[in-house]
Design brief:
Order of helices and strands: EEEHEHHEHHEEEHEEHEHEEEHEHEEE
Strand content: 25-35%
Radius of gyration: 20 Å
Strand order of the largest sheet: 6-5-4-3-2-1-16-17
Largest sheet: 8 strands, mixed
Number of helices: 10
Distance between the termini: 26 Å
Oligomer: single chain
């Protein structure tokens, strides 16, 4: 699908930055070139055509060895962010692997270990995350707010979340899953990790980027986007590019962020989501950002069609036959930004269904 675009396979120059956002409709991945052949990957999903992590496929397409990946960060353990992460960690054998600090808890690790016993019952997100932690245990790094995740001669990357409050609440939710003393440990279900997902601030040359993961807007001043915008590191930040959090959903919208920390004509890049009856972004979501003057780019047109519901007997029979079922979704839409160290503007390319929303 990409072969018709000769420009697609041209890698960035050593002094050139790149941010590519991929998303087929369920799943997202950010691939960053930080200059001088250094690559960093945030989140992952498996390309359904090649069966490989999308980051690995893309780097191979442009002639880059996956061993040039210096870091792989999984912002949280939802299905659409962790697919193929353990496979990528094995192939990028030199990469440091970053995960939320809430997973550096003894009881969480005990539940992950227990999940191995019940793998046939485990949800895919937890099984994948456990495999990632196992294969990269000597390279595993835990991320909390204000940690420097990556630093090169040309670029710095800093975590803006999870805050202390978010980590505490995440651990409290996980603790509620523990059975009473003496009871067998049940498979780990993981709860909802969006509140403690990792948001990143990237300073690349003269430009700021904010990568919003799935962090939500909440009522607390010490959590969610309220905590991000009040972080001292954000004082003078005006992001030229924002990876819009939570697929553009209103639940992650921060008026303060978009009015005070995004350039007036800044780019808002969205990876859509389709699952069950949920389709994001909605038209109102893209209009909300466009009304602020933002250039709203989406990797793929969200498909509002929901798979036909089968009767209970058919569903039960399918569950007995198939361990893993998924709806086939669209192409790997890609938004690619490139710019040089002293540039104040970026070049933008859209591939395989990516489009600008109005």
């Amino acid at each position: 699908m990409y072969g018709v675009d000769d420009c697609y396979k041209i890698p960035p120059k050593p002094n050139e930055f790149e941010l590519s956002l991929f998303g087929p409709g369920k799943g997202e991945c950010v691939v960053l070139h930080l200059g001088t052949g250094t690559w960093f990957v945030i989140d992952s999903y498996v390309d359904r055509n090649s069966g490989r992590p999308i980051a690995e496929k893309y780097l191979n397409d442009i002639g880059v060895d996956p061993n040039q990946i210096s870091g792989l960060l999984v912002s949280h353990w939802h299905d659409d962010h962790v697919g193929g992460a353990s496979m990528l960690a094995r192939r990028a054998a030199k990469a440091s692997v970053f995960v939320p600090v809430s997973l550096n808890d003894a009881e969480t690790l005990r539940m992950l270990a227990a999940d191995k016993k019940y793998e046939f019952r485990a949800t895919s997100r937890i099984g994948e995350f456990r495999q990632l932690c196992e294969c990269a245990k000597d390279r595993l790094r835990h991320v909390v707010v204000d940690r420097t995740v990556c630093e090169t001669e040309m670029c710095t990357m800093r975590a803006l979340s999870p805050s202390d409050e978010e980590v505490t609440k995440s651990l409290e939710r996980l603790a509620k899953q523990l059975p009473p003393p003496g009871s067998p440990l049940l498979p780990f279900r993981g709860g909802n990790p969006n509140d403690a997902s990792i948001v990143l601030l990237v300073n690349a040359g003269l430009l700021h980027l904010v990568l919003g993961s799935d962090l939500l807007q909440v009522n607390s001043a010490a959590a969610g986007w309220n905590a991000v915008v009040s972080n001292p590191a954000m004082k003078d930040v005006m992001a030229a590019i924002t990876k819009v959090p939570h697929h553009g959903s209103k639940s992650s919208y921060s008026q303060v962020y978009w009015s005070k920390h995004s350039t007036p004509d800044g780019f808002a890049a969205i990876a859509p989501y389709r699952g069950g009856n949920v389709v994001l972004p909605r038209k109102a979501d893209t209009k909300r950002l466009a009304s602020l003057g933002k250039r709203v780019l989406v990797t793929q047109i969200p498909d509002g069609k929901v798979p036909r519901r089968r009767n209970a007997g058919a569903e039960k029979e399918l569950e007995a036959i198939c361990r893993n079922r998924r709806v086939l979704i669209g192409e790997n839409g890609q938004i690619r930004f490139r710019w040089t160290r002293n540039a104040r503007s970026v070049a933008v390319e859209l591939f395989a269904g990516a489009y600008e929303a109005t």
